[in-house]
Batch of 4 targets.
Target 1
Amino acid sequence: MMKWSLWQAGILVLSIIAISMSFYSVINTPKLGYVIINEAFDAFDYKKEMEKEYLNIRNTRKRLLDSLQVDISVLSSRIRQGENQKEIVDLLNRKRIELNSKMEQFDEANELLAKDSDKKIIKQLNQYVEEYGKRNGYSILFGNTNGGTIMFGKEAYDCTKEVIQFINLRYAGTK
């Protein structure tokens, strides 16, 4: 049987400790990734649906404003042709006031609708990204917003495409 010297035993113990520490660090290395938020936001099917709804509402409002513009043009034309009846002038003034009022009202409503839609989309997107991270064992998923929070990340950590696929499947209810 081979006798171990103190020196050999020490090297063996240090080797075992080094291997154990390496193994422990590999096992406990957090899984990290990042998502390019603007890409995920733009590719999110829910965002596309909300955008269509917003455009429909905005276009309906625009048609109403266009109709008022036409009424004002017709009344202005009648006045230019010599019909200066008080009723026509009063109607023209009422239409102008109505148009200005509706324009302000619609501008504010469109802005509020856009902000509300964005808020709903971002809330849903964040929930799905969190769910994606948990299901796929991530310790941290960073959001790259092109605002300087992540200046560089290796492409291997970019999980944007996978997240987009996940959120759209999840939104469709198939995952």
Target 2
Amino acid sequence: MKHTASRLMALMVLTAGIMALSPSVAHAQKIAWLDLNRVLKGSKTGKRFLRRQKRIQRQFDDERRQLQQPLMQEEQSLQQEWNQLQRQQQSLGKEEFSRKLQAFKRKYDNHMKKVNALNQKLMKLQNKYTKKFQNNVLAPFNRKLKKVAAKLARQKGYTYILVHDPNNPQLFVYASPSLDVTGDIIRLLDSSN
């Protein structure tokens, strides 16, 4: 979803730049906007997108927790051992404490190697689920959204249909509600199911 927002933002900035360079062309163009959040929450296609996104996120979280669990237990054990070693520091002889401290450091170093290996696995896991989301959820949604936006643009003569969030404006501080085609996009998405 972050990549989609970045791509949409780049597209909006590019469009605004083109419009700023040639104001006379911008005035001759018919422009509309849609609220992507309303499309996601208000259309059957958007709701399906959000359900699939949550399902993939849950799968990732479950697999991540399963991978992390053994190391979390080991970390707790190490923390208990460290606390005990600190409590014993005064009662142990200097050599005995040094020996136990060195043994603890070896365990800790070994644990950190496992943590680093786990981090590598987690990065691969995140990449796997990101690709799964992009290929199975995001790309089909984007194709469908572009298809209905193009259909609406042809029907109503729009040159551009931009994404705008009136509650959190990024590019446009204000966009006239009369140019909002979100309802039309939702109707077209729902009728194309």
Target 3
Amino acid sequence: MKKIFFQLTSLYALLFLFAACGGAPKAGPKANTAPSYSESVAIFYPLAVGYKWTFKGTMIGIVTERTVQITGQEDGYYLDNSGGAFKIDAYGLLDKSGRYLLRGPLAKGTTWMSVPNVSTVERYEIVSEGKEVSTPAGLFRGCLEVKSTSKLNNGDMLINITTFAPKVGIIKIQTFVQSKTSRLPQVDLSLINYSTY
């Protein structure tokens, strides 16, 4: 009788301990759990106070040089000296307005939309991956190219192509207005210097 009592007490203690520790080991993530892309996106857009990027090129035909530097953090966002605020969440690179500039999975053909205001819908697509791109800052391998489009009030399309390099961030930005008959360049900036990692 004492042996049976001891075995039952041990079994109950084991079951209690098992339940207290969370039950059986999980076989993997639940089917409805969304995958996290934060680590892979962070490789293509490193964020830390002090990181900076200098771009040179043209904006609406005017030669320009701009330096963007991460100057601080607020509410989980990294702030830059040009008024930008960015963070990386489980889905991708998000700006303060709720727009994803880069979103996982990081593979050619991945698409998403952002609605920065009631009259604007932006459509994004990763149009190339593993690309080799040269800028005055160097030769970058394994780059991603993201194309975004939005319709303007007159029916023309605003097209933006942003190139991201691993462990660097944005290395090239090209923006143009596409009408039925022409393509008018707006922005063509390339990275000339950077300080990350």
Target 4
Amino acid sequence: MLDGYYQGALAIDSNDKYYFENLYRLYYAKMVRFAKQYVLSDEDAENIAQDTYSDVWERWSELHNHPNHLAFLLFVVKNKCIDFLRRKTTIQNIYRQLAEQQKMLFSLNLQALEQFGTDFKSENDIATAIQQALNSLPARCRDIFYKSKIEGKKHKDIAREMDISINTIETQMTIAYRKLREELKDLLPLLLIFFLD
């Protein structure tokens, strides 16, 4: 397992390799336990400990001259745990936002289906009502809705194309759904099937 650490190393003598292996045996399990207190997962803790020893091998001269090897190792592990938790927090925030958007969409869909009746008029009347409802949206709101629901573009792509933030896209989509629900009432579930034919 330690052979991988030596690949690409320059001018590392056998004493350094022996010393590094001793450090690995002496502190690896401690580094894993330290990391696990914060990242909670065995696998993530082991990955952090492995990455720590890889970094230490690449920065061997710093460790070799450091007066407290355990403190140096803990410093590296600590920083790797911080980076890991920051990434996890960012990912969790994204998932939370997506879950909130999905919850809102499910709620709107539920309301639309509960109001949906099949005693509508002709297809032409439905198409006209839907077109009028779409035309009633503010221009920017309508453009965003078309790009998202009619053209099937992702929010991040629309944001880049229109040079606006993803939050603006989400706000405008919420406005569009609210206005369309008010205008179309029980015809809202027919919106996309008429425009995707």
